[in-house]
Amino acid sequence: MSHDYDPLAAESFDSAHADYARLREQCPVVHSDTWGGFWALMKHDDVATAATEWQTYITSQQNVVPKVAFTGRRPPLHLDPPEHTPYRRALSPLLTERRIARLEPVVRTICRDLVARMVANGGGDVCADYGAHMPVAVFAHWMNLDSDAIDALVDAGRRYNVAVQSADMDTTKETSSLLYDMAREVVADRRATPLPVDEDATSALLAVRVDGEPLPEEMIVGTIRQVLVVGLIAPSVVIGSIAVHLSRHPDLQAELRADPSLMPAAIEEFLRLYAPYRGFARTATCPVTIRERTIPAGEPIALVYASANRDADVFDEPDSFRIDRPNMKDSLAFGRGPHNCVGAALARLELRVAIEELLAAAPSFTLAGEPKPTRFPEIGALSAPIRFGVAA
Ligand code: HEM
After folding, report:
1. CA atoms of 60 and 76, how far apart (whole Å)
2. Is 34 among the domain residues?
3. Closest CA to 302 of 76, 67, 78
4. Which atom of ligand 1 approaches the CA of 340 most closely?
5. Residue nearest atom 39 in ligand 1 by C-alpha distance
6. What is the pTM of this model?
7. Is residue 25 in a domain?
8. Which mutation among 230, 277, 278, 307 tests ligand 1's pocket best, with the greatest number of atoms within 8 A of CB?
């Protein structure tokens, strides 16, 4: 088997995208021997097809490259339909755009406080000082935690985020099991004192019946734990990547400050350009031939959403920021098919408010050092040091 690609090769913030552009041209169905061997789909059409055809491309065997298997199965991501469906149905009503809009004042207060601390210091690392704190604090509110539990979750979630992204395995394991304990505690609390099912995700999961039976306790705990983790890291990486982009484009900063109504469209385009995932995976249930390459059944296949979103066959001038793309609906930032992001409305709210508050805090900001790239399975900023200035 040929080895086309080394995901462990050194990268800069921009270099992975340059490599992926080359692979889309020369080797769009990639094989790598790394991590026990995996395939990677680079073209938009192939990624969209694999994400949609869930009967052929399943997630229950391996849902991410590299495989990180410290713990048990975590719905909804680790299950295929129909087993996946009750977990997804329980979460969806609590994550609709309308339900999530109610969180905006909380998100804004959290963002404003964090940015004020950075401004007082003249700047800071947008990932470590902002992106790693905000989503977990918002989550704690979404999960209706009391103030002690909010503080504990914010601390564990932030440490987990930093540990995963810096490949610190010991701290990752320690904080991962801490997050599991917290999920277990929330489930026990809600079992003792349920909240209304249209207000609380844990209570909604506890109320589900499949053929008259409740969902297994460990799977409910796994769901809470899954939502916690997928909801923590992606927003942090994207906020960092957007800060890098805006630091390099003071004209765009000025435009967005002058007309905040542009923000929702700008966030969609930022999500297209800086889709933070390259490692979500599927496994084919039978041999599949894509662009004349045959992938045997049973081998992991990464859907490289970050590459698909810069495919010139779908997006004109794919590396440029263009706020008025006529086909923005083709962006795969939130995936496609049964596992598409159930938290997209929350993610959009967090990103919009986070960037609005960053832009409002000072007349300008610039990079104060080289941004550091994050690693597989994410892609984007691990660190984005900025300094605030007087004029854009
Ligand atoms: C910038 C932020 C985010 C991005 C770009 C993002 C992107 C994605 C993508 C691409 C998938 C599909 C995975 C696959 O195809 O295997 C996904 C799934 C998922 N996301 Fe997000 N996500 C973000 C934030 C969030 C947040 C804040 C939550 C919190 C609720 C969340 C919850 C989930 C869950 C539970 C799944 C699994 C859904 C399922 O398997 O049915 N995500 N996300």
Report:
1. 10
2. yes
3. 67
4. 12
5. 339
6. 0.96
7. yes
8. 230
Pick the residue whose CA is nearest to atom 20 on ligand 1: 341
77 C-alpha to center of ligand 1: Å?
Answer: 9
Centre of ligand 1 from the C-alpha of residue 1, in Å: 32
In a domain, 333, yes or no: yes
Encode burial over 181-214: b for 16+ CB neighbours within 10 A, e otherwise. Answer: ebbbebbebbeeeeeebeebbbbbbbeeeeeeee
Torsion-angle region of residue 371: left (phi > 0), alpha (psi -120 to 50) or beta? beta
The residue range of the domain holding 354 is: 15-389
Q: Whose CA is nearest to atom 9 of ligand 1?
A: 334
Number of domains in the chain: 1
| Cα–chain center distance at 41 | 19
Q: 226 C-alpha to center of ligand 1: Å?
A: 10
pLDDT tens-digit readout, 297-322: 999 999 999 999 999 999 999 999 99
In angstroms and rounded to an integer, the radius of gyration of the C-alpha atoms of the chain is 20
Decide if 6 is inside a domain.
no
**Ligand 1 touching residue 48 (CB < 6 A):** no
Q: What is the pLDDT of residues 19-70, one digit of tens each?
A: 999 999 999 999 999 999 999 999 999 999 999 999 999 999 999 998 865 5
- With a 6 A CB cut-off, is 227 part of the ligand 1 pocket? yes
User: For ligand 1, is residue 88 a contact (CB within 6 Å)?
Assistant: yes
CATH number of the domain within which 277 lies: 1.10.630.10
Q: Taking a C-beta distance cutoff of 8 angstroms, is the pair 346, 231 a contact?
A: yes
